[in-house]
Amino acid sequence: MSLLLQHTPGVIEAGCDEAGRGCLAGPVVAAAVILPNNFENALLNDSKQLSEKNRNELRSVIEKEALAWKVAFVDHEEIDEINILKASFMAMHRAIDGLKTKPESLLIDGNRFIPYEGINHHCIIKGDGKYLSIAAASILAKTHRDQFMEELHEKFPHYGWFKNKGYPTRQHKTAIAEIGPSPYHRKSFNWKIRQTKLKLK
User: Fold this and answer.
1) Quick one: which H or E segment has residue 71?
2) Which residue numbers belong to the known binding site for a divalent metal cation?
3) What residues are designated binding site?
């Protein structure tokens, strides 16, 4: 599927996406990105469809060429307090708060969103594979979160975060079962190795 440039031509749009909702540890991270109207890049796509090398290359391009961008974190403690869905929306709101240019419209990846005061939004299922600004936001959210978890891995190497980034792989769950959770694990999630689905608060 080829990515479209804008949802509404002539309107300043910010694409928004998050990374880390399904993880057992670490923050949920969101990004908001406003791209110039003439932005083009043949590599740009949903972050999940790209190699780590291409994501990191695109991160540099997006951060240099975007009209405005911001990445925001909601940590594991906040996730436990308000639940992961609300935390994802909070991270998006924080990212929008930090944009140096105020958007006139928001393009949200997914089917739900808590409205941001004063700005209309459009929820787009699989939007990171349809619109450039959402794809760009998905790349920034993913790469910034991955970097955070890789740095955290140096302090807590047992969980394999350099590879799984906090997602519930068998290795990760086995490590929790053997040595217990780290201070960065989400207490509202079920870590048991026999569990196949995450249990949310």
Assistant:
1) strand 68-74
2) 17-18, 109
3) 17-18, 109
* Interval 18-31: pLDDT, tens: 999 999 999 999 99
At 8-59, the pLDDT tens digits run 788 999 999 999 999 999 999 999 999 998 898 988 887 888 999 999 999 9
User: Would you mind telling me the total number of residues written for the chain in this entry?
Assistant: 201
Q: Is 85 exposed, middle or buried (0-12, 13-18, 19+ CB in 10 A)?
A: middle
80 phi/psi in degrees, rounded to 5: -65, -30
Residue 84 reports pLDDT greater than 60:
yes
What the chain holds in terms of domains, given with CATH numbers, is: 13-153 (3.30.420.10)
| Sheet containing strand 13-19, strands side by side | 68-74, 28-34, 13-19, 105-109, 120-124
